[in-house]
Amino acid sequence: MKAKYAINLSKGLTFFFILLLMFVYQNFTLGPWVYLALHGTYGFLWLLKDRIFPDKQWEQQVSIPQGIFIFILVNFYWIAPFILISSGTVPPLPLVAVAISLNIFGVFLHFVSDAQKYYTLKYQKGLITEGFFARCRNTNYLGEILIYSAFAMLTQHWFPFLILGGFISMIFIPNMLKKDLSLSRYSEFDDYKNRSGLLLPKLFFIKNNSGVSNQNSV
């Protein structure tokens, strides 16, 4: 089986899992509805994204036990809605507004940069050094972090942030470094690396006396 099957199953069930929690705990307040709209919709959008421009790394074959492990691992993200709905916590409106804005911005970065990567590499192999990847080498991961940060904010609890930190340190960053190692085979990679950030974009650059650009990440 492909690794994406376990991931897609989790993404597709997220909406129904959150809705089930709302019925089990009879919690139909603002927070759960907003969370359902954001995280549930994100799950469906992920399935649509996989259909239109799939991520090559999730096409790899895995054993059934590995697939089960991936499914369980991804479902750690379900702890956030469980905490929110079971606790009965009602997030204040300003926090809801910030979370929605952060989520929209994250979905934009994640999906559009993935689309750029997919269609660029489909027709031309090599480094992608423009558009969403001009100043950041992993705009898609940055978007995903913003998405799950928004979900964690709604819970007003530290544990979802800890889970996100675990994914960042044990999965996202290793994948980003592995990608850098793979791209280093291109002669122009060193120049590209100097003017782009691993995760945060390098927005400003200053030319020194030797004409070499020094850039700061923001």
List the helices and strands and how they pair.
Layout: H1 3-24, H2 30-52, H3 64-74, H4 79-87, H5 93-123, H6 139-155, H7 158-183, H8 189-194, E1 202-207, E2 213-217
Antiparallel strand pairs: 1-2
Oligomeric state as shown = single chain
For the secondary structure, the number of strands is 2
How many domains is the backbone divided into? 1
- Strand fraction equals 5-15%
Shape, per Cα inertia axes: globular
- Residues in helices, as a percent range: 55-70%
Describe the strand arrangement of the main beta sheet, using strand numbers.
1-2
Radius of gyration: 19 Å
What pattern of helices and strands is seen along the backbone? HHHHHHHHEE
Helix count, DSSP H or I runs of 4 or more residues: 8
* Separation of the first and last Cα atoms: 40 Å
Low-confidence stretches: 206-218
- Characterize the biggest β-sheet: 2 strands, antiparallel
Counting helices, strands and paired strands, the structural category is mainly alpha
Mean pLDDT: 93
Write structural notes for this entry.
The chain starts with a helix and ends with a strand. The radius of gyration is 19 Å and the shape is globular. It has a two-stranded antiparallel ribbon with strand order 1-2. The protein is built from eight helices and two strands. Helix 1 runs antiparallel to helix 2 (30-52) and helix 5 packs antiparallel against helix 6. 28% of the residues are buried. The chain is mainly α and 218 residues long. The protein has one domain.
